[in-house]
């Protein structure tokens, strides 16, 4: 049982790292001066994701887990808003990023259901 939990946790951290790298690649390709602030905020937003995931999974008490859960959910929502803004400007192809965000969200929800309760 603990091997399964550890495997799911490792996959979740890997998904967060993959999502972070895909976002960084998108940000490199954004050259529109009007999006520089969005680009900077998006990069800062995802840079904390792997660290927050590790803190979430390493938390010993339920209150700390919930606190990290709320932070992660806020970060994911913020990323989605920035991606929506980028898609409206049509400055970059965000479909790979949205796909990775969906994968991460699904895996996070699955681990969260098992881990919080």
What are its keywords?
mainly alpha, single chain, 0% strand, 117 residues
Please describe what this structure looks like.
85% of the residues lie in helices and 0% in strands. It is mainly α. α1 (2-29) packs antiparallel against α3 and α4 packs antiparallel against α5. The longest helix has 28 residues, at 2-29.
Describe how the helices and strands are arranged.
Elements: H1 2-29, H2 36-47, H3 49-58, H4 62-89, H5 95-116
Helix pairs in contact: 1-2, 1-3, 1-5, 2-4, 3-4, 4-5
Task: Give a brief description.
With 117 residues, the protein is mostly helical. Helix content is 85%, strand content 0%.
Distance between the ends: 16 Å
DSSP E strands, number = 0
Largest sheet features: none
Structural class: mainly alpha
Rg value: 15 Å
Shape descriptor: elongated
